Amino acid sequence: MSELSAYESFSVEVRDHIAHVQFSRPEALNTMNKAFWLELPRCMQDIEANTDARVIVISSTGKHFSAGMDLGVFSDPKAVPMNGDPGRMAENLRRVVLQLQDTLTSLEQIRLPVLAAIHGGCIGGALDLVCAADSRYCTEDAYFTIKETELGMTADVGTLQRLPKLMPQGVVRELAYTGRKFSAAEAQNLGFVNAVYADQESMLATVMDIAGQIAANSPLAVTGCKEMLNYSRDHSVEDSLKYMATWQAGMFRPTDMMKSFQAKAGKQAPQYDALFPVKPLFDQ
Q1: What fold is seen in the domain 219-265?
Q2: N or C terminus of the chain with fewer C-beta within 10 Å?
Q3: Given the DSSP bridges, would you call strands 10-15 and 18-23 parallel, antiparallel or unpaired?
Q4: Nearest to 122 by CA among 60, 76, 203
């Protein structure tokens, strides 16, 4: 297992097959600056390629989970030209937004489940981020808001596309049109978060326990679950069932099932082989 890279925006610790990614800029309310957008997909790839992690937990430090997008991202003239031909400026901005979208989509594309542990404010771009996680948990003081509307723009990196798959359409529209905050209790009632905890310490302890339960299962079975659930969300039942049959025909082998049966018979925890690391094609 290779040593992980160092990141400006978060710390990463891998223990017992669990990668804990923790936002580490509390003095800046963990805003999503330029470094964050560059580092997050690299971090996901790094964990997948260079660690034995089978699940990822994302949490934060300081008062808030994240205050969202650092507007300085759009003030860099090298990234977003502020003058010139309008058509070319528009084409450039579209490319920038697509890159930002891809950063958060990396949470879906990685084959490991991603659990988000949220405290305090989860604002704007941070809400986009947690919508891309597999499961969400929060503290009683947590709140969420589609802040972009209040700032005079339309949220553009995932909330409006993913949140309607997680909550009732009418509620999402209200939240998007008004930009109002919704609380931890409302988020749980709507099914957006799995559970609410009294404080960050108890939340992290429970989320790490859930992560441990995931990590104890066959990594091939777990990644198959994530692949099928993501596909089914975006396709018809008929197409999803056909894809499921194809996946099972190609990926299913009795090895892990036999290990599970043998471990239960011996009253022991099963020991599953790791998935092969995902590395760049010419960096094997």
Answers
A1: Lyase 2-enoyl-coa Hydratase; Chain  A, domain 2 (1.10.12)
A2: C
A3: antiparallel
A4: 60
Question: Would you state the CATH architecture of domain 10-215?
Answer: Alpha-Beta Complex (3.90)
Question: Confidence band (pLDDT; 50, 70, 90) for 101?
Answer: very high
Q: What is the pTM of this model?
A: 0.94
How do residues 152-185 score in pLDDT, each as one tens digit?
999 999 999 999 999 999 999 999 999 999 999 9
pLDDT tens readout for residues 218-264: 999 999 999 999 999 999 999 999 999 999 999 888 888 899 899 88
